[in-house]
Amino acid sequence: MKKILLNKMSMLLIALIGVLVLLSACNEENKDEETKEATSDKLAYIVDFELSTKSLIIDEVEWIEEADKERIKELGLDVEKDLPTGFMIYDETQKAESIKLAENAEFFLVNHEDIAKPKQVEEKEFISYLAVGKGPYDLTIEDGQVVKVSEKYTP
After folding, report:
1. So where are the chain's domains?
2. Is it the case that residue 25 has pLDDT exceeding 70?
3. Which helix (H) or strand (E) holds 76?
4. Is residue 124 classed exposed, middle or buried when 0-12, 13-18 and 19+ CB atoms within 10 A define those classes?
5. Cβ distance 51 to 34 under 8 Å?
6. Which superkingdom is the protein from (predicted)?
7. Cβ–Cβ contacts within 10 Å for residue 85, how many?
8. Are 145 and 99 within 8 A, CB to CB?
9. What are phi and psi of 78, to 5 degrees?
10. DSSP conformation class of 78
11. Chain segment 87-125, per-residue pLDDT in tens
């Protein structure tokens, strides 16, 4: 009788351990999803910089290439006419939004001497560049703040 009770308790303990392992795996998946939600990437034109709030005013856009056949069809685009250079920057809403810069944000500009190696610059230089730099820019956003701004090379 003791053996049967001991076997049942062992089986129950093994089942309980299995459930705990499954629950901890689910918890890790939720953490990964939360991290994904907290970090995002956007392609946008920077319309303005608000010095008082240290915020960028951006207009989010979409990069469409010839390979994006489904999206081209969805938008009713003509590859010959609308994508003569092999891509287009599509601005569906033309709506500006304000987004705060993180204290430790990084800034990268196209290095015209070697476009494969962007040039990192200080915030002050980047803000000055905005007066002449057309963009668009790849923005990395974490917890609602821009942590990285990279000028996108456009041929």
Report:
1. 40-151
2. no
3. none
4. exposed
5. no
6. Bacteria
7. 8
8. yes
9. -105, 115
10. -
11. 999 998 889 999 999 999 999 999 989 989 999 999 999
